[in-house]
Records
---
Amino acid sequence: MTTDNKVLAASFVMIGVFGIVGLFALLMAPEGVFPVKEFFWGQLPGVLNFALGVAAIKYAAQKNDKNFMIIVLGAMTLSMLFIALFIIFLLYILNLNQKYYIITVFIFYFLYLTLQLIYLVKSEKKTLSDNVH
């Protein structure tokens, strides 16, 4: 298993664990003790951003170096706009506590962004012979 696949596997395990814990807490925990709904739904924007970022990296890896950066940075910009609209949509539809939800979204966003950057570094192109002078 390559290093980038190990990063993806660890990320999916982490997403699964957080999702199961959030779902279990949503079903079992009393709502007044801990902001359960905010914890459960706050994971979703980070997970979507991670999935879009990994898909963009995999797609861009097949392109040349100039297009690679344009595709990855463009996808990051578009996913940030999409996630911002998604957060606003969830806040109004699900009637979540704004303070707890935004804090949870930021925590998970930066966690999954870090995993995405680790994946990007570990999955760099293997065509180093083009750069040798």
Note: The chain has a mean pLDDT of 82.
---
Amino acid sequence: MRATVDKNGTIHISDFNPVQAYKIAIKLEEGGIAFYQGLGRQLKDEGARREIDFMIKQEQDHLKAFRALLLEVKASVDDTFEEDDIVDHLQTHIFDASIEKEVADRADHRHTTLEEALNMERRSVVFYQGCLGQTTDAAARKAFSRIIEEEKAHQAKFASLLRAKCIDRSDGCLL
């Protein structure tokens, strides 16, 4: 991994390896779990809380998958990317406490939680696509592509749930 600082002081990270890619994915999944757990504690609607529990389970499944992929590639790559390195300080604004509060405040219907889950997945995909664009290592590109596929599948699952809720709503869809 290479980090450079431009004249405005912005840090640019590039040239990831697959271990780093999966460590980032793991960190973001952990952030997603924490985000949804915090959101769930703030919601009054029982149905919305059940949906949040479902999303937490989905994030936990992703976390397990990314940990398994990390173990697969870790043996074959020289990893100088320590756990207390930049990944621990990664600020992507994909999961943010202010977003959590904002979503909880307007979560007067269950669509809101699914809409926000869908937005989180979209932001994750955009973030990983940015990482992919800054990566020249073929194995890391493959890792980021795999992560993007997983996140897009997650996105499709949440979109299907949201469409089903729209169809089932007697007072119309909020989308």
Note: The chain has a mean pLDDT of 76.
---
Amino acid sequence: MISNEPLLAFSFALSTRNNQLATISDDILDNLDAGISKGFINDAYVTKAGINVWLWTLGAYESIRTMCQAKTCFTSECLETPQLLKKKLSKVRMPDVKVEKQGNREPVSSNRSPWCEVVETKDLLIGDSDEPFSARQLIEEYFQVIYSITPSEIVATHEESYN
């Protein structure tokens, strides 16, 4: 099982959460595909996608943060890309959760939509409207990072990081 789901070697709970994030991301992409077509936006589908993107971002950030915090459980090479992804996820999470810019306690506008639809790519731009991120690209990058981890890069369980 570990060869198919390497995160099991780190944490059964985190591996399960990752699978849940995959299910949510499928829902997000399905709702974007159904909600944006031929220049028409179906608010019901796009709103479902937007709500799930917000929740997905929180879960993805916490999963990556947990891995990065447990440095002794992974090889140093393995943690390089999760640490970069954590910074990106943080730049989305801060404006969407705390309504402030990441890293400098400066507010983002509260008089804004939490996302911006991009009809051409059936996407949502999320995070700070001054520095938005593509929801589709962030989802893709998250799973590229997670699925690139091999069993040999996990050297201890999550619990062992507390010893």
Note: The chain has four helices and five strands.
---
Amino acid sequence: MKELPRHKIREVLRNEDYKTLALLCLDLLDAKDWLEGWKKMEEVVTASGEFVLSKFLASAYVLAHEEIYRLLSRSTREFLARDVVLCLEKTAQVIDALSQKQGSASGYAPPGA
């Protein structure tokens, strides 16, 4: 699994660069685009039962798309950005836990493996 870039998260939050923050979700999932990101997240959600990750990824998707992003108030962007940080943290934890179980009967392979 890729290391969670906590220094990068702090930097983009400090700069209120929420689009870049959202794209870190794709990086964590080792996805080249949003379609692949959603497919990989669905694998994680299905294997873990952590359905809230889909909601968090939806927040990232909204922040990454200019046509939606520009409609949002600063407060709404900040609210969604908090969900994206939770998405990054929780997804990293879940992928790590699933990776540790990889040798078990589940046969789970983390995204990008």
Note: The CA atoms of residues 67 and 100 lie 39 Å apart.
